[in-house]
Amino acid sequence: MTKIFNISSDATETDKIKEAAGIILKNGTVAFPTETVYGLGANGLNEEAVKKVFTAKGRPSDNPLILHIADRQMLNDLVKEIPVNAILLIDKYWPGPLTLVFKKSKLIPDIITAGLDTVAIRMPSNNVALRLIQESKVPIAAPSANISGRPSTTKAQHVIDDLNGKVDGIIVSDDSTIGVESTVLDVSESIPILLRPGGITIEQLESVIGQVLVDKGIMHETEIVQAKSPGMKYKHYAPKAPLKIIKGDTPLVIKKINEISKEYQSQGKKVGVLATEDTKQSYYKDNIVISMGERSRPETVMLRLFDCLREFDKYNVDIILAEGFSEKGLELTISNRLNKAAGFDITEIE
Questions:
Q1: Where does it primarily localize (predicted)?
Q2: Domain with CATH 3.40.50.11030 in the chain
Q3: Among 77, 143, 170, 212, which has the highest number of CB atoms less than 10 A from its own CB?
Q4: What top-level class would CATH report for the domain 3-218?
Q5: Per-residue pLDDT of the chain (350 residues; tens, 9 = 90+)
Q6: C-alpha to C-alpha distances, 65 to 202, 224, 225, nearest whole angstrom
């Protein structure tokens, strides 16, 4: 049976946090809020506890996890060294939505890193997450708190829908404030490599440390033998219905989506359209049209993206047609999540 903990964003319910931390220390599993998405946590130093996370999610064992910490002393114990680039980024962005990949210490079980010699670590800024880690006194291994492959969870109800009865505890608190998983940067190499875009952009990273390379799998379908970060190897974030992305100049995209939707409707299919505030009135009224947010404010799209994908499930649509985004700034993050959700089913309009 899953225990539900209602905890406010200021984390003043000390007894409830201690009880949830007790579950972690007894090698159980607890879903908890962060500023990015909700996470499903377990004792990151105990192999048996971490196995329960993989089981609850149905997550492949070769997909590494991120360790969540509450202070820099925890970091010192988990890694072999902290490069200068990492120190600069930690000073700027921790706590916050940035995960850094280091050479790991012997303290970390292989199950966390899928056998790699590197480990992904971040310090969340969410008060409830930090208090849970502090009370647990161990790093918490936590992927997103959803069934593997499904859209990530940004609201407590999403977590309950996916994992109630499969985990030991769920902390119900405020919605995520960013809406997508953290940026992941590998600082174990001489030139850092962006492995997953998130709420901190490559432009922001480069303003602090200079050159950053970009893993080609971020935007293109590639064969990955061993993923160094979550979100790299498998189809992720997918709604129940197939998702197709249409990219190009906005007027041409609108025209193409209307053409495709008319064709699907002629086959008796229910069509969903993932639009923006700017375009939502441009599509046929008999489609299920949901706005992600304002294209001119991509942070609003990031915040709503996974919620929108889950919303289409409620309408039982047969197909979802989504407007594409660019590969600059936060739009790179949005494009990455949409591409993965669509299995790279992308039509470019010229």
A1: cytoplasm
A2: 243-348
A3: 170
A4: alpha beta
A5: 999 999 999 999 999 999 999 999 999 999 999 999 999 999 999 999 999 999 999 988 788 999 999 999 999 999 999 999 999 999 999 999 999 999 999 999 999 999 999 999 999 999 999 999 999 999 999 999 999 989 999 999 999 999 999 999 999 999 999 999 999 999 999 999 999 999 999 999 999 999 999 998 898 866 555 556 655 555 678 999 999 999 999 999 999 999 999 999 999 999 999 999 999 999 998 999 999 999 999 999 999 999 999 999 999 999 999 999 999 999 999 999 999 999 999 999 98
A6: 22, 16, 16
Longest CA–CA span in the chain (Å) reads 61
Q: What strands lie across the sheet with 169-172, from one edge to the other?
A: 3-6, 169-172, 30-32, 39-43, 140-141, 66-68, 118-122, 98-103, 183-186, 193-196, 213-214
Q: What is the DSSP string of 199-243?
A: SS-HHHHHHHHS--EE-GGGTS----SS-SSTTSSS--S--SS-E
- Name all contacts of 253-258 with Cβ < 8 Å and 24+ positions apart: 253/323, 253/324, 253/349, 254/279, 254/282, 254/283, 256/347, 256/349, 257/283, 257/321, 257/323, 258/282, 258/283, 258/284
Residue numbers in the known binding site are 36, 59, 63, 68, 118, 122, 142, 144, 152, 182, 196, 237
Q: Where in the chain is the domain with CATH 3.90.870.10?
A: 3-218
List residues forming the annotated binding site for ATP: 59, 63, 118, 144, 152, 196, 237
Amino acid 135 reads E
**291 contacts 301 by C-beta, under 8 angstroms:** no
